[in-house]
Amino acid sequence: MKSLFVILAAEEGHEPSPLAVEWIEVVLALVVFGLLFLAIWKLVAPNFEKTFSERTAAIEGGLAAAETKQAEADAKLAELEAQLADARHEAARIREEAREQGAAIIAEMREQAQAEAGRIVEHGKAQIEAERQQAVTSLRAEVGSLATSLAGRIVGESLDDDARQGRVVERFLAELETGTPGAN
Amino acid sequence: MIMAASATIAAEGGGFPAPGPGIFDLPPVFEIAGIGVTKPMLQLVLAAALVFGFLYVAARQRAMVPGKLQFAGEGAYGFVRNSVARDIIGSHDFQRFVPYLVAMFFFILVNNLFASIPFIQFPTFSRASMAYALAGLSWIIYNAVGIWKHGFLGYLKLQSVPSGVSPAMYPLLVPLEFFSNILVRPVTLALRLFANMFAGHILLVLFATGGLYLVEHVGGIGYVAGPLAWILAVAVAFLEILVQVLQAYVFVLLNAMYIQGALADEH
């Protein structure tokens, strides 16, 4: 092993130009670089490019899918909101209808009840009138015979003559009705 | 050993032998069919293997949710793909050039970083010929792209005749444009990469061996100045890492810009 300074000193002698062309080095550099270029061109770059484009596609695909999903969700939401609004509208309509119907029913019922009441009252009145009429009739007959028998007894004379008897009673009753009694 | 070396230098009467271009002429590690295989040659192959191995394994998984390795690979590939190829060439045409630009960027990056990796510590592209190779390839590619798109004469016109300039200026501008767009570009591409790597490495060697020389042969103040040089060497090494990354990026960025210029309808 020679010392560094010996090498340095020894090389003082011949000074090769550092710019000289060494053809063997030129050719070797070209060949080695050429092989490296071929290897990268054929074996490295396609893999990287494929990875890059696949990744880009994956990201873009993911974004597109997300956008589609978002649009779908938006549409669904709008649809549901429309349905909800419809349902609310429907409910309000039904409530309104029910209220109207209720009011109508109540009015009808009231009318019916009033009619019934009127009818009952009418019926009662008619019955009372009829009974009064009957009572008056029977009373009239009763009062007539009573009064006749009473008057016959009092005057001591039989009033057999029906016509005369009838006239007396009628007159008597008429006086009763007009409120001038005692004129007999 | 060191004493012997010092004795040699002392005997030769030279002072500090500053590192020169000679340190880039490494002896062959072994020989195949009479061709000496040197360290930078092995580094080229190793870099290509590392770049391909990493990207291939990272790309192979193809998971929708990447693991750490795949994430790193996608970040590396996506960086060149998006912020170099797509941003400069434009989203219409960039896809065809992505493998080329990715291979170019990581190949140069790893080869440059070799200069800072312990036990390798040699920038591959400090060998000018290797930088020539990549710059020449770039030149062929962007010109081929332009000729394929516009035809030979159309492409020459695109690169040489500036638009929006009165024809009176053509005699002056056309040779200039042709010179700068067609002739100078590969030279500057190659030299920029080569010179940065070359200078960075020589600077590091200078600080390291200079520090050693100060400590071993100067004594006295050398015991202070030597370690100081080493501290500076560490700082320079970090600077070099930045330069290595930047040069790989610039090389690929210019490649993309040249391709874009060749594809453009107006320039």
Automatic annotation (TrEMBL), chain A:
It is a single-pass membrane protein. This is ATP synthase subunit b. One of its GO terms (molecular function) is proton-transporting ATPase activity, rotational mechanism. Keywords: ATP synthesis, Cell membrane, CF(0), Coiled coil, Hydrogen ion transport, Ion transport, Membrane, Transmembrane, Transmembrane helix, Transport. F(1)F(0) ATP synthase produces ATP from ADP in the presence of a proton or sodium gradient. F-type ATPases consist of two structural domains, F(1) containing the extramembraneous catalytic core and F(0) containing the membrane proton channel, linked together by a central stalk and a peripheral stalk. During catalysis, ATP synthesis in the catalytic domain of F(1) is coupled via a rotary mechanism of the central stalk subunits to proton translocation. The keyword Transmembrane helix applies. GO terms for cellular component: plasma membrane; proton-transporting ATP synthase complex. F-type ATPases have 2 components, F(1) - the catalytic core - and F(0) - the membrane proton channel. F(1) has five subunits: alpha(3), beta(3), gamma(1), delta(1), epsilon(1). F(0) has three main subunits: a(1), b(2) and c(10-14). The alpha and beta chains form an alternating ring which encloses part of the gamma chain. F(1) is attached to F(0) by a central stalk formed by the gamma and epsilon chains, while a peripheral stalk is formed by the delta and b chains. The chain crosses the membrane at residues 23-45. It comes from Nocardioides antri. Belongs to the ATPase B chain family. Pfam families: ATP-synt_B. It comes from the Bacteria. PANTHER family: ATP SYNTHASE SUBUNIT B (PTHR33445:SF1), ATP SYNTHASE SUBUNIT B', CHLOROPLASTIC (PTHR33445). It is found in: Cell membrane. Residues 63-97 form a coiled coil. InterPro entries: ATP_synth_B-like_membr_sf (IPR028987), ATP_synth_b/b'su_bac/chlpt (IPR002146), ATP_synth_F0_bsu_bac (IPR005864), ATP_synthase_B_chain (IPR050059).
